[in-house]
Design goal:
heterodimer, A: alpha/beta, Ubiquitin-like (UB roll), Alpha-Beta Plaits, 5 domains, seven-stranded mixed sheet, six-stranded mixed β-barrel, 31 helices, about 30% helix, B: mainly alpha, about 0% strand, globular
Chain lengths: ~950, ~80
């Protein structure tokens, strides 16, 4: 069922410039060439009855309800499948058409239950509407004959019901699954009257290939596919457009509400990042927002071994501020700091870093982007001049060659992956570089031209060998490079990559990728037309993460694939507001807008704006904070919506650092793993409970709109403001829009941004200023932000994390579709039905050698620690490589990851850990200690016992 | 701050700039990067460590550390590129 307020124009918009003029019901109208008569009529205000048509789907022409009469044409053509033509004269209504439509509807209704009053779609059912529109007054056929009214419901999916008795076999669900999602999980089985919708091989939805994206539910014109919340609560009475708080795609949704109760989330057809599509997380996994685990009362304690004491907001804030001030008095101004969150809004992040820089008086602010995309910020700033991706998502529809390296879009960024798959089905070529066989390598109607199955930790070697081919085979776009880039730096780079040591043949023993495949892939990328590179944490989370980002930018520049649609460097940002949190000055060396703290002009401008002296010295990064804490130099931290204990590598080290501190303040919606080490707990608010903005992976700033009051009383920005005031640094924003206005006043790339302007345009891609008043979908057109693009020499340096006889396997980590990062949100939803535990993927050969079978407990030991996971024996991973997700804290994935980090940014090397795997009989000591620590809070096992033991 | 980690971080930076064809560019790159991204207390620790024999610093980062220790030093964040 469509959103309660959306209008559907029947067939997709056509963007052709040429317009044709036709007459519809005697009125002259114009429409772009290729537009259907149905859409042209709808845009002119003439509604033609329809059932199988939706503007989200290509026309199908099966329901025969949209028939029209066209002068000079025989019969009654379907208006959805007939394009407009110059001079065409269309009649949408006359007695003959009305008679045919009534006949069609009569047949539909003759096999449809007449339970409208108790039907969840009542009032918003397209079948019901059309019966009214065509004037159906009787059904002559009765229900005595064969029918589908007793068809059994499929309730297997936790979020929606499939009731085949209400199905009219319009194929909208099947086509949505094919065209929109690209999973091809649904089909029409049988012929004629026997036709029914089936999932996979006529299996229950949960057992089928269905990924529960919700496209079929949205497409269904009846109540055949209905959200269970809609069935339970009834239809909403109002809706508000907001932005999803899961991944970096930043989908726009309509939150459909009854008062302050959320009925359902419906993807917004006008959303410019998602165009009406969604995934199982954003569409359905919202239960965490009202989960009983929500922290709703502030609490304090003197020691982490003490029980929490619930206190008033005033007492909690006062205690936190007094502790921070006490610590600064005792240990110095630099002894405290804070961490911002990529889950929070831009406005919240901005005032947290402002509090730290201006209120705490130092630059000890960092963000969770440290552990994901900090190398992106560094690498793209150095080479291109701006710490952001170069394109919008729609750019992919003009790509000819798509190079995906170290990213798993179908799991990590599913809605964009669906758009990418649309383009691939249209014929774009695909190169995947990944140690694992990710779903994109081979999926329905898609097969990668090349899957470069490299060893973990060798991205730079692979990128250099691709560059070597491009240089040595004269595939460089010389004119682009000469005009757009620094030529001396290019020449230095060209000499470097041309060296025999960087050839695919020389690097084959390092990467494990056959040289011939590398050469072929390089040729395809350089000569195949518009080449676009998409990368993710499989690039950044390495000791050479920044080097790999530099290498990617080098490739894009060398092949002239930057500065127009269809090309570019596209970091797949992990969390909803990673881009925004970095934009807002979360890094310890940069003010908002990526301006260095040592820049006197900028610093003085902020000193004036913020009314406080500011430090010109870079502050501590998160891992530096841990080190300083262990050295008793960093003793207090304000952690805003981030779970350092579960997210950061080497859990024991993180825990030891937190235990060294005298005041850890955690602001979060749940008692997360980090909160177990906290002294002050400040309840957070969900994205449904506050106003603000998120900035997605394509630099798109979208509004987050409050649809309910904060359950703990205050939105996060209000809590930060209270803390600032208690610290003696005044903040008096009345509304987050005032914070955005300040951001616009102080940040050149945001000059034209305001809540009003976003409301007007829908969303805005920064830079948005006088030069680009409606934003910038494609960056670096004509000139790079830094002027000339800069090639950087990127020598491969092997990871310090070596395999040996004791640790013969390489562990790498990743995400899965149904869970989100540390799982704090999705683990508190029905998404656990898809993924209830992290497992260790191991190749059959490695499993055989160790007598490990599917489902066995496997002990995994690294140089940092050990844990136990159940085995999944699969050829997805190559021999010598094991893989796990990290969504469940008890898995202890980061108990075994090491302290190794990127040379430039200290982004942890999550993707390369040498381990041994052995079959064991039960969960490990880590899990036992973890459970004892987690599940008996009133009598906790001392934290030191949990986290200090290996 | 742990001296061992400071040394390791500096050596890691040195491995990147070690690919520069000119030694002077490599040393300048390392010094500039550290000046631009490291907190003062970390830079001071590095300079202190660099005074010890067998501190573990490799040749290029050692030279960079000594440059940071010089009275003129490296202005914080003098350059944006090259790290």
């Amino acid at each position: 069922m469509l959103s309660i307020v959306e209008q559907d124009f029947g067939t997709p918009r056509r963007a052709t410039a040429k317009r044709v003029t036709l007459t519809i019901d005697g009125v002259e109208v114009q429409a772009p060439e290729g537009t259907s008569i149905m859409r042209a009529a709808a845009e002119a205000g003439v509604k033609i009855p329809k059932l199988c048509a939706s503007e989200q789907l290509e026309a199908f022409g099966s329901c025969r309800l949209c028939l029209v009469q066209i002068e000079g044409m025989k019969g009654l053509p379907a208006s959805c499948t007939t394009p407009v033509a110059q001079g065409m004269k269309v009649t949408t209504q006359n007695p003959q058409i009305a008679d045919v439509r009534r006949g069609v509807m009569e047949l539909y209704i003759s096999d449809h239950p007449l339970d409208c009053l108790t039907c969840p779609a009542n009032g918003h059912c397209e079948l019901q509407d059309m019966a009214g529109v065509v004037g159906l007054r009787e059904v002559r056929y009765g229900y005595e004959g064969e029918n589908h009214l007793d068809a059994v419901k499929d309730e297997s999916n936790p979020y929606f019901t499939f009731d085949p008795s209400k199905c009219i076999v319009c194929s909208r669900c099947v086509r949505a699954c094919d065209e929109r999602q690209g999973t091809f999980a649904l089909t029409i089985q049988g012929r004629g009257f026997e036709s029914t919708v089936a999932a996979s091989q006529d299996e229950p939805f949960m057992d089928s290939e269905c990924v529960s994206c919700g496209a079929c539910v949205q497409a269904c014109p009846t109540a055949t596919l209905s959200e269970k919340t809609l069935i339970e609560k009834g239809q909403a009475e109002h809706s508000t457009i907001t932005t999803c708080a899961y991944c970096g795609v930043g989908c726009s949704f309509r939150a459909e509400m009854k008062g302050e109760e959320l009925v359902r989330m419906v993807p917004d057809m006008n959303g410019m990042a998602n165009h009406g599509h969604s995934c199982v997380k954003g569409r359905f996994a919202i239960g965490y927002t009202t989960h009983p685990d929500r922290v709703l009362k502030p609490a304090i304690r003197a020691k982490i071994s003490d029980p929490w004491r619930e206190v008033s907001w005033d007492e909690a804030i006062s205690y936190a501020a007094s502790e921070l001030k006490r610590i600064q008095a005792k240990y110095g101004r630099e002894s405290i700091g804070g961490v911002t969150s990529s889950r929070c809004t831009n406005e919240e992040v901005y005032i947290v870093q402002k509090l730290i820089r201006a209120g705490f008086g130092n630059n000890n602010v960092d963000t969770c982007a440290r552990v994901c995309h900090s190398p992106t910020g560094y690498g793209l700033k150095v080479t291109l001049g701006e710490s952001a991706g170069t394109q919008n998502f729609d750019s992919v529809m003009k790509s000819d060659v798509i190079f995906v390296i170290g990213a798993n879009p179908t799991d990590g960024h599913p809605v964009f992956a669906s758009q990418m798959k649309q383009r691939l089905r249209q014929g774009a070529k695909l190169i995947v570089a990944d140690p694992r066989t990710i779903d994109l390598v081979r999926s329905p109607h898609i097969e990668a031209a090349y899957h470069l199955k490299l060893r973990p930790g060798t991205n730079v070697a692979l990128l250099n060998s691709i560059a070597h081919v491009i240089v040595s085979e004269a595939l460089v776009k010389e004119d682009f490079v000469r005009e757009r880039c620094e030529v001396p730096a290019f020449e230095k780079w060209r000499t470097f990559v041309a060296a025999p040591g960087n050839s695919p043949e020389a690097m084959e023993s390092v990467t494990g990728v056959p040289a011939a495949e590398v050469r072929a892939a390089a040729r395809l990328f350089a000569t195949g037309g518009n080449g676009a590179i998409y990368y993710g944490l499989g690039v950044t989370e390495h000791a050479q993460g920044s080097t790999a980002v530099l290498g990617i930018a080098n490739l894009a520049m060398a092949t002239g694939n930057i500065g127009r649609e269809g090309v570019g460097v596209n970091p797949m940002r992990g969390q909803n507001n990673v881009q925004g949190s970095c934009d807002m000055g979360s890094m310890p060396h940069e003010f908002p807008g990526y301006r260095h703290v040592s820049d006197t002009v900028v610093r003085e401008m902020f000193e004036t704006a913020w009314g406080a002296p500011l430090s010109k010295e870079p502050g501590l990064r998160i891992p530096n904070m841990f080190e300083a804490a262990l050295a008793q130099e960093f003793m207090g931290v304000y952690i805003n919506g981030e779970d350092l204990v579960q997210s950061d590598p080497n859990t024991q080290h993180v825990a030891a650092a937190l235990m060294s501190m005298e005041c850890v303040i955690v602001q979060d919606i749940f008692l997360n793993e980090t909160a177990k080490f906290a002294h002050v707990l400040l309840p957070g608010s969900t994205f449904l409970e506050k106003d603000g903005t998120f900035t997605n992976a394509e630099r798109r700033i979208s509004r987050v709109r409050k649809v309910m009051q904060p359950k703990a009383g205050f939105a996060d920005w209000e809590v930060t403001q209270k803390l600032a005031n208690a610290m003696g640094y005044p903040m008096n924003y009345r509304d987050p829009s005032e914070i955005m206005d300040e951001i616009a006043r102080t940040t050149p790339t945001f000059t034209g941004v305001s809540f009003d302007r976003i409301d007007e345009l829908g969303s805005i891609q920064w830079p948005c200023n006088e030069a680009a008043p409606t934003g910038t979908p494609t960056m670096h057109i004509g000139e790079f932000v830094r002027g000339k693009g800069k090639f950087m020499v990127t020598e491969f340096v092997a990871s310090a994390e070596k395999v040996n006889a004791r640790y013969p396997l390489i562990l790498t980590t990743g995400r899965i579709l149904s869970q989100y990062n540390v799982g704090a949100q999705t683990r508190r939803t029905e998404n656990n039905q898809w993924h209830s535990e992290d497992r260790l993927e191991i190749h059959p050969h490695d499993a055989d050698e160790r007598s490990i079978k599917e489902g066995d407990w496997v002990g995994i030991v690294s140089r940092a620690g050990e844990t136990v996971l159940r085995a999944r024996v699969t050829e997805r991973v190559q021999p010598g490589v094991v893989y796990t997700t990290f969504h469940f804290p008890e898995s202890g994935a980061n108990v075994i990851t090491t302290d190794n980090s990127d040379w430039a940014t200290n982004c942890p090397e999550y993707k390369v850990t040498a381990v041994q795997a052995t079959r064991v009989s039960q969960p490990g000591q880590w899990q036992k200690r973890f459970r004892a620590f987690s599940e008996v809070p009133e009598n906790p096992v001392p934290a030191a016992e949990v986290f200090n033991a290996k | 701050m742990s001296g061992d980690n400071i040394i390791k971080m500096a050596n890691d930076i040195g491995h990147f700039y070690g690919a520069e064809p000119l030694r002077e560019d490599a040393i300048a790159g390392i010094a500039n990067h550290i000046s631009r991204y490291w907190a003062k207390r970390m830079r001071e620790k590095l300079v202190e460590q660099a005074q010890h024999q067998d501190c573990g610093l490799e040749e290029l980062p050692l030279a960079a550390a000594r440059r940071l220790a010089a009275p003129t030093g490296v202005p914080a964040a003098a350059k944006i590129d090259g790290g």
